[in-house]
Amino acid sequence: MTVYKKISIDIAKPQLRKLGAGKTVTLSASQLKGGSMSLHVHPADYEKIQKAKKANRGCQIQIAEGEI
């Protein structure tokens, strides 16, 4: 069983809709610094986001149906 990790990001409503539809969303470095939205993501996506945060750059994420 996979244990999903919780992240806090700042995400716009259109981006949230795209994630819900299973599409890829690009998050900027400033969006990754934290915000009011919390998501539970796959550990691989979590590591990808943490690596982007550390490098002060954005990244692309996609949420699978099971993660919503």
Give a quick rundown of the structure.
This protein has 68 residues and is of the alpha+beta class.
What can you tell me about this protein's structure?
This protein has one domain (about 5-65). The mean pLDDT is about 90. The radius of gyration is 11 Å and the shape is globular. The protein has helices at about 15-20, 30, 45-55, and strands at about 5-10, 25, 35-40, 60. The chain has about 70 residues and is α+β, with helices and mostly antiparallel strands.
- Overall structural class, as computed from helix and strand content, comes to alpha+beta
| Euclidean distance between termini CA atoms | 16 Å
How many structural domains can be distinguished in the coordinates? 1
Give helix and strand order, one letter per element, not per position: EHEHEHE
- Global morphology: globular
Number of helices: 3
CA-atom Rg in angstroms: 11 Å
Distinctive features:
68 residues, alpha+beta, two-stranded antiparallel ribbon, globular, two-stranded antiparallel sheet
Topology (elements, then pairings):
Layout: E1 5-9, H1 13-20, E2 25-27, H2 29-32, E3 37-41, H3 43-54, E4 59-61
Antiparallel strand pairs: 1-3, 2-4
